[in-house]
Amino acid sequence: MFDWISGFIDAVGLAGIALLMFIENVFPPIPSELIMPLAGFNAASGEHNLFAVITAGSAGSLAGAVLWYWVGMRIGTDRLKRLARRHGRWLTISPDEIDQSNAWFKRHGGMAVMVGRLIPTVRTFISVPAGVSEMSFLKFLTYSTVGTVAWTSFLTLAGYWLQSQYEKVSAWMNPVSTSVVILILAWYLWRVATYRRRVPKEGSTQ
């Protein structure tokens, strides 16, 4: 994948970096842990301006976050609660838990969005509950920008400073990303298995 990403960035330039980061936020299998260190390496070799690379990567990533935020807004609380009544076990959440989640998100959502943008896999989907809970777009965009720029800058600067050794960033980050995915999958399976115990009334209708 390194060669493909490198060739794409060489061919399309900064717009290619933005597009790849947008796709990474919509379709996670193309990881930012590969895209941005490689873009940073290209900046170190003089092909692109470092600030422009960070800006392009952050802009593409934010565009993906806004798309998921819009999806959450379109789904809305009422529709999500109807889905929870019908398919609560597989969604791992009940209508009451949705209300509790919205209340929590309205109190702490800004920090959750900012930190979530720093966590592999989580950063892709943290925008959905922000939209569902109707967090103001300005607040969402502000916290998302802080988290996104921090993450994008870290990866880009790692590739910039390591230069030809930028593959080490991927070698270190890939196991971290894999571990996060495994933990999320394990958490989901646990939520499915314990659904009746947590919400017996809804679970009895599944």
General description of the model:
The chain has 206 residues and is mainly alpha-helical. The protein has one domain (2-203). Helix content is 83%, strand content 0%. The chain contains 11 helices and no strands. The longest helix has 42 residues, at 50-91. Mean pLDDT is 77; it is low at 202-206.
- Mean pLDDT value: 77
Q: Runs with pLDDT <50, length 5+?
A: 202-206
Annotation field: number of helices? 11
General form: elongated
Q: Number of domains in the coordinates? A: 1
Q: How many beta-strand segments?
A: 0
Main structural class: mainly alpha
The fraction of residues assigned to DSSP E strands is under 5%
Biggest sheet features: none
What is the string of helix and strand elements? HHHHHHHHHHH
Q: How far do the termini sit from each other? A: 42 Å
Radius of gyration: 19 Å
Residue share in helix: over 70%
